[in-house]
Amino acid sequence: MSRHRPAARMSIDRPFALRLAAPGDAAALEDLIALSTRVLQAPYYSREQIEGALGSVFAVDRQLIADGTYFVAQSGTTLAGCGGWSRRKTLFGGDAGRDAADDTLLDPSRDAARIRAFFVHPECARRGIGAAILDACERAAAKTGFTELELVATLAGVPLYARGGFRATESFDITLANGLPMPVVRMRKSIAQTAVATAGG
Ligand SMILES: CC(C)(COP(=O)(O)OP(=O)(O)OC[C@H]1O[C@@H](n2cnc3c(N)ncnc32)[C@H](O)[C@@H]1OP(=O)(O)O)[C@@H](O)C(=O)NCCC(=O)NCCS
Q1: Hey, what CATH topology would domain 16-92+99-190 get?
Q2: Burial of 33 (0-12, 13-18, 19+ CB in 10 A)
Q3: What whole-number percentage of the chain has pLDDT above 70?
Q4: What pLDDT score does 197 carry?
Q5: Which ligand 1 atom is at minimum distance from the Cα of 119?
Q6: Which of 6-10, 66-70, 134-138 has the lowest mean pLDDT?
Q7: Which of 58, 155, 160 maximizes ligand 1 atoms within 8 Å of its Cβ, making it the mutation to test the pocket?
Q8: Distance from the CA of 57 to the center of ligand 1, in angstroms?
């Protein structure tokens, strides 16, 4: 897959490459998700909320990896970021405690594809990695025939998706495993015009 070197960001010291995640990435992805969440969500959520979400709301979804719809951004040997899209009903969360009905396949002619589980390494934040993965997801979903995208964003994720053309449709709370509420935002975007000629993934 293509290499990205954002011209406007002079602080980037190494390029990163996007590739599809493999089952063997799962352990490193769990580490990345925990690190990303604990550092980059600290301005938005309490420590108790973050710890209550890790392992369930913020965790690896192996179904996405199996479906070939989850990307990792790799910089050297470091996983610099991850994120994906889904043709299944689930909107957020890892493997733990998910009902099989949540994995129902969506109908591209009627349903919105999901954007899922974006996490960037804190040392690689604001270097265009999230935006590059989002673009790859959008193109892959369009290539599969979807014309709408939907996601549930953390408060930390809202600026990335708003910049990518998503609009907020609903704010609500997820109830975490420890009983605390976590405010999140449902967002949506039409990709009916997205060109698929160069779609990857
Ligand atoms: C949200 C997240 C994935 C963004 O990844 P990123 O690689 O840093 O984002 P990008 O560099 O591609 O940002 C693209 C644009 O989005 C917007 N943006 C991203 N993060 C932002 C922030 N913290 N504050 C304001 N705007 C932001 C900006 O417009 C940015 O462009 P700019 O840097 O030229 O101003 C990252 O902050 C993260 O991993 N957060 C913790 C986990 C999380 O909450 N994930 C979202 C799950 S829904």
Answers
A1: Aminopeptidase (3.40.630)
A2: buried
A3: 89
A4: 52
A5: 39
A6: 6-10
A7: 160
A8: 19
| Domain chopping of the chain, boundaries | 16-92+99-190
Q: Is the pLDDT of residue 26 over 70?
A: yes
pTM given for the model: 0.92
Q: What is the pLDDT of residues 39-48, one digit of tens each?
A: 999 999 999 9
**Distance from the CA of 126 to the center of ligand 1, in angstroms?**
6
H helices of the chain, in order, are 26-40, 47-53, 62-67, 129-143, 158-163
Q: What is the dihedral of CA 171, 140, 195, 104, to 10 degrees?
A: -60
* C-alpha–C-alpha distance, residues 94 and 87, integer Å: 16
Measured by CA distance, the residue closest to atom 1 of ligand 1 is 157
